[in-house]
Every structure is written in C-alpha cells, then in structure tokens.
Design brief:
Largest sheet of chain B: 5 strands, antiparallel
Number of strands of chain B: 5
Order of helices and strands of chain A: HEHHEHHEHEHEHEHEHHEHEHEEEEHHH
Strand content of chain A: 15-25%
Oligomer: heterodimer
Radius of gyration of chain A: 21 Å
Strand content of chain B: 25-35%
Chain lengths: ~375, ~90
C-alpha cells in the first residue's frame, strides 16, 4: 500500500480495502474491466494492484480515444493537411501519435502548419484569424468531448464561418463494450463504468449490460477511495448474484446525463454504419460522423480523403493489449523498441494508454522480473 | 483532453450569454456555457470544464475534491497548461 498515506482519508481506504478482501474471499477469481483510460492511469498511478487481493484482476478497457484510433485515420487527416493553405489543429494528445509517415508533430517539423489547441472553440478563433486559410480540426474523443465539437460546429454555422471543418473521429463507448462482451476470448465478471463520459450519457445506456448480459456495472470516480468503493459495490452484487447499474460518482454524474450535450450531438452528428477500432476491428454503429445539415463543415465531405487502411506494425501487439488478452509488458516490443519517448503504438503515447501507464509506474518492477532467470 | 477541470464562474458575459469567465486557481479564462443550457450557472457557481466547455455544475466541496484528484494523478500541470491555452493564449 505504498501511496496510501498520501491519500485523503487513509483510514477509510484501509477499511475499504479490508472489506474488499473479506468480500472477495479466496475461492473465486474476479475479472473486472475498467472501461475508461482515466481509470487505467489512476490504477497504475495509485498502485491499486498492491492494495487489491490477487484474485481481483483489473482488465484495461478501450476507453482511451487516442489509443483506439487506427493509424489510417491519422494518415487520412494528415493527407488533407498536405493540401495547400490548410492548417491542421488538434489537441495536444494527438501530436505525438504516429502515422505511417510520422506524427503530426513530425509533419510540423517538415513544414506542415500544425497547431495545438486546448478547446474546439479556439479552432474557430484560428479560422477567424486566418481567413485566407482553411482550418481543419482533427476531432477525437468519446462522449466527453463530442458535444463540444458539435456545439462548435453549430456556432460556426450560425456565424457563417466557412474556412473551418472537422475531421470527425468521435467514437461512442457503448458499442465498444458490446464488442468486448461479444468477443469469445474475453471473460469478464463486471465493469467499472467511465466517470466523465457518464456525465454526458448518464447511467441508463448501461442498463442492457446488467439486464441482458447479467454483468454488474458501477460508474466510478477517479480517486483511490472512489475506485475501491466501486469494487466493493461490484463484489456485493456479484456475491448476491445481482446485476444492476450503480452510480458511485453521484457527486458529478447525474443519472440522466447532460441533455443539452446530447441534444448538440444529435443536431450535428449521426452514427456511422461501422468504424474501425484499433485492436477491436470494425464495430457497427460505434462512431459519429457529421450529418448532411453540416456537410459544409465536414472535412470528409469537403476534401478527398484517401481512406487509408494500415495494419499495425506486425511485431506490436496493441490489439491484444487493448482487448486485455495480453498485459502491456507481454508485448514483444514493450520497453524495448516501444517506449513513451519513441512510441510505436498509440497505447504508449497517451498517459491514459495502458502501455504508457504501465511503463511509467510498473516498468521498474517488470524489469526486475525479466532479469530473474526464467524457470 | 480527458481532464475535468474545476473552475469558479466569476462573470457571465451579457454580450454573449453562452460564455463566462472562470477562475481556476487564479488563472482566468473565458469558457463556453452552451452545454449547460438546461441548468445555467450564475457567478459564484463551480463547474467542471472539459476542453473549454462547462459540462456540469458541482459543489464547492466537489470542486476542491476534483482539484485534489488532479493533484494525486499528477495532472495539475497538464490541467493548468490546458486552462492557460484556452483562447490561444499560448499559441506559437
């Protein structure tokens, strides 16, 4: 329990950890997936594995938007920005994600006009400041950021700002969970539900997981105590054979979500029939595209997009890690060819990617294990 | 991008009802309120901000908790960099 003393309410944490051990017992192995990349980061950062009994296994889910984006989409976005007078704008998280011919940052070094923005509204500002250029926003994220992109497009339309478009890579969390549950090599007992995505979508969209799949799911906050309490709630359900949606993060997540945000998304976006996810393959109705009303602000409709499909570097096993079939350190490239300084796969780029989280917090431990003779 | 940053509303702009000045530990930036149309905040309220948009109203206590969470996650610097960057303040 290395970090416990730094946490708030250390006694309550110890008590909750004790309760987890009591509930988990010894007979059964529990596999719980934390869907959200923010939770993955927190789990490593806080050393929660050291607190949890061995028979509770946390599987890292697909909830890191940078990590699940196939390389071809990055290539497509960059190919639009190769055209004259186009500015490529994206959040900082995207800048180091490798495309076939390098990351956006590497393209910037070669002369592409690449700008980091911290908010989609600032892309509008860039467009106003550069009336003779076209500013393309490379939009990524789950339902946490999709409403902001949508509202920004609504504002552009209202303003009549025409030198701005969105290359939309927004994805939705529910179909990804469904794909994981449908995957034959994935056995899971329960889910730790995403915190911030749920502020937008609320808790209702998870009900099928409980009702149809009979798996408990608890929407959780990000502090150590939040996650431990969520695990207690999941174990209580599993012990009594119940399966329901519970909300541990009530202080932030309303059960019904944020209606204005959902309305903005519905105004601008529609579901793609299918979309490719790194590691999970094509998942039907799992991503958003710009609808016809906003075609003028859709980079995919305004520009010729090559539609590049790239298979991941063969040796990299991002897919297996994303599905939770392999742990990060079990990938052949982990910590050797692929490090946070020189990432080969996106899981190593984002702090929410399980490889980067594992590398930053567990790698020293893993390195010691690999030095010991293999029996 | 996935950070939820707590801020206190200090001013709502009457020229544009959908934006407000927030204070995030002393740094003040304009953010968009358009996603809180159903539950409009007033000056003094605390909100969680994602990528320059207020996404939910929270209590002062929860705002302090969220700051503490960011601190524990080692993401205070990232969060402050994000807030300072709103409005292209640090554009190169």
């Amino acid at each position: 329990m290395r970090f416990v003393d730094e946490f708030r309410e250390p006694e309550l944490i110890s008590k909750t950890a004790e309760e987890i051990r009591r509930l988990a017992g010894r007979e059964r192995h529990y596999r719980m997936m934390e869907v959200c990349g923010g939770h993955t980061h927190a789990i490593y950062r806080f050393g929660l594995k050291d607190i949890l009994p061995e028979n509770i296994e946390l599987i890292h889910g697909p909830g890191c938007p940078v990590c699940v984006l196939p390389m071809g989409r990055i290539d497509d976005g960059l190919s639009i920005a190769q055209q004259p007078d186009v500015i490529f704008a994206a959040f900082g998280d995207m800048m180091r994600v490798p495309g076939t011919l390098g990351s956006p940052l590497e393209h910037k070094a070669r002369g592409m006009d690449v700008r980091i923005v911290y908010s989609p509204s600032d892309v509008l500002k860039l467009a106003r400041l550069n009336p003779d250029k076209h500013v393309m926003f490379f939009a990524i994220g789950f339902e946490t950021t999709a409403p902001s992109t949508a509202l920004t497009m609504m504002r552009a339309k209202a303003e009549g700002l025409r030198n701005f478009s969105v290359f939309c890579n927004h994805v939705t969390i529910i179909p990804a969970i469904r794909a994981i549950l449908d995957s034959p090599d994935m056995r899971l007992d329960a889910f730790i539900g995403p915190g911030h995505v749920s502020t937008v979508i609320g808790c209702r969209p998870y009900e099928w997981i409980a009702q149809n799949e009979r798996k408990p799911i608890v929407v959780s906050g990000f502090e150590p105590l939040d996650m431990l309490q969520s695990i207690v709630m999941l174990l209580r359900q599993l012990k009594t054979g119940e399966a329901k949606v519970e909300n541990q993060y009530k202080r932030v997540v309303p059960w019904e979500g944020n209606r204005a945000a959902l309305k903005a998304m519905a105004e601008v976006f529609e579901l793609r029939p299918y979309f490719e996810w790194r590691g999970l393959g094509f998942i039907s109705q799992s991503a958003l595209r710009v609808n016809d009303k906003y075609a003028e602000w859709d980079a995919e409709q305004r520009f010729a997009v090559p539609g590049i499909r790239v298979t991941d570097p063969k040796a990299a096993q991002c897919g297996e890690v994303l599905k939770g079939v392999l742990k990060p350190h079990q990938c052949k490239l982990f910590g050797r060819e692929c490090t946070p300084e020189h990432p080969i796969g996106a899981l190593m780029v984002s702090t929410e990617g399980s490889c980067a989280a594992y590398y930053n917090y567990e790698h020293r431990k893993a390195a010691m294990v690999s030095l010991s003779p293999i029996a | 991008m996935c950070l939820a940053i707590p801020g206190r509303i200090v001013e709502i702009f009457f020229d544009n009802q959908d934006s407000a000045m927030v204070d995030v530990v002393g740094v003040r930036r304009r953010i968009d309120l358009g996603l809180l149309q159903d539950d409009k905040p007033v000056p003094g309220d605390w909100v969680l901000v994602h990528v320059g948009f207020a996404m939910s109203k929270i209590s002062a206590e929860d705002a302090a908790d969220q700051m503490n969470t960011l601190r524990m996650l080692g993401e205070i610097d990232g969060a402050m960099q994000e807030v300072r960057g709103y409005g292209l303040e640090e554009m190169n």
